[in-house]
Design a protein that fits this description.
By secondary structure, this protein is mostly helical. The chain contains seven helices and three strands; from the N terminus they run βαββαααααα. It is globular.
């Protein structure tokens, strides 16, 4: 089960018994962010809002059932797995609050549609990033694409065009084979856009 901490102004980092490497996430939670830490199965709740809580719970559900959040992936797969993860987190939050809007602000140029062009776009914009959490631009693009796909996935599901079996596949599949996460992201983008 996850350890869920409600982070308030009075919460002390030492009371969480987390490694110092998570102190930056703790500071974000103090500022109101909600964060899932997959290596520890910890959810930090900085904003007691149902959308944020259900999204981070969705990330936990995905991490626990796929067992693949900490798997090392090639660049395109790492990026694509992040988008799939955000898609599922947003989808879970839409189950709880169907009126939630996918209104993530993103200021880069539009991502192209062709797989080869997407790969080139990612390398041009981000270089060879291995940890998207460190780069705010990469994190913004991952959330933007993931929220859009999660919103569409929810609509397709409630309209009966995507089955519960397919949703279960996304939640439980590990996408560990080389190129698999990237191919799935491109397929989802084509199908859901």
């Amino acid at each position: 089960y996850p350890h869920v901490y409600s982070i308030t102004k009075k919460t002390k980092f030492r009371d969480l018994y987390l490694s110092r490497r998570y102190f930056g996430y703790f500071k974000l939670a103090k500022e109101g962010e909600c964060i899932f830490l997959p290596n520890n199965d910890v959810i930090l709740i900085g904003d007691n809002h149902i959308n944020s809580i259900s999204e981070e719970s969705g990330h936990f559900l995905h991490s626990t059932n796929s067992g693949s959040y900490t798997h090392k992936r090639p660049f395109e797969d790492c990026f694509s797995f992040g988008i799939i993860s955000e898609m599922l987190g947003f989808f879970c939050s839409k189950i709880i609050n169907p009126l939630r809007s996918a209104d993530w602000k993103y200021t880069f140029e539009k991502m192209p549609d062709e797989p080869d062009e997407i790969s080139e776009f990612l390398r041009d914009v981000f270089g060879d990033i291995n940890n998207f959490e460190v780069d705010p631009d990469a994190d913004d693009l991952i959330h933007y694409e993931g929220y859009r796909l999660g919103d569409r996935l929810f609509l397709e599901y409630i309209n009966g065009r995507i089955s519960l079996r397919k949703i279960k596949y996304f939640v439980t599949h590990d996408f560990k084979k080389k190129g698999e996460a990237f191919k799935e992201f491109v397929r989802l983008r084509d199908k859901l856009n």
